[in-house]
Automatic annotation (TrEMBL):
GO molecular function, one term: protein N-terminal-serine acetyltransferase activity
Domain N-acetyltransferase: 7-170
Any matching Pfam family: Acetyltransf_3
Protein name per the record: Protein N-acetyltransferase, RimJ/RimL family
Coiled-coil spans in chain: none
Gene3D superfamilies named among the record's database cross-references: 3.40.630.30
């Protein structure tokens, strides 16, 4: 695997669809915190055909190096009121890409991108309360822990708590990020 500084975000290409579909429908790739059961295997291809997985209310970018896919980051619009919204982001890395700083780098690149290209003031992320590697990655990416979301995720037959994190525009120098 390449150096973490070689990690970049890029739009999903047609050649990425088998990797994405495989990741989303693989208990092994999604374990231990992201496996919620089988999904429609054609859903990703339909979304890509419709808008390249880049819409006004959500999006998905590949996490990659110049030569290999490492996973993906995603975001979705959360309406805060009739006049304001923020993004909730997520990440799923291939097992071989985990534990090397790739998640921290990818999430920071996504934050820089969203603040540079959308008017939101807040970006949030949540992760299961026992997902300590993701909590560390979010903190290293500049997110602040806000609290516990009790019994918010149903996985593997039971409800689980999650930790809520956020980063706001004032936390980041968007112009210096150069995204």
């Amino acid at each position: 695997m390449s150096d973490v500084d070689d990690v970049l975000l890029r739009p999903v290409g047609e050649g990425d669809l088998p990797t994405l579909t495989g990741m989303l429908n693989s208990p092994e790739a999604r374990a231990p915190f992201q496996w919620f059961g089988w999904l429609d295997p054609a859903r990703t291809a339909r979304g890509w055909a419709e808008n390249g997985l880049l819409g006004p209310d959500n999006g998905l970018l590949m996490v990659a190096t110049a030569t290999e896919p490492l996973g993906f980051v995603s975001w979705r619009k959360i309406d805060a009121s009739g006049y304001s919204y923020f993004w909730n982001i997520g990440i799923l890395l291939l097992p071989d890409a985990r534990g090397r700083g790739v998640g921290t780098r990818a999430q920071r690149l996504l934050v820089d991108y969203l603040f540079a290209h959308t008017p939101v003031v807040r970006i949030e992320a949540d992760t299961e309360a026992t997902n300590f590697p993701e909590q560390r990655a979010l903190e290293k990416a500049g997110f602040t822990r806000e609290g516990v979301l009790r019994s918010v995720v149903f996985r593997d037959g039971r409800w689980r708590d999650a930790m809520l994190y956020s980063i706001i525009r004032d936390d980041v120098d968007v112009a210096a990020a150069g995204a």
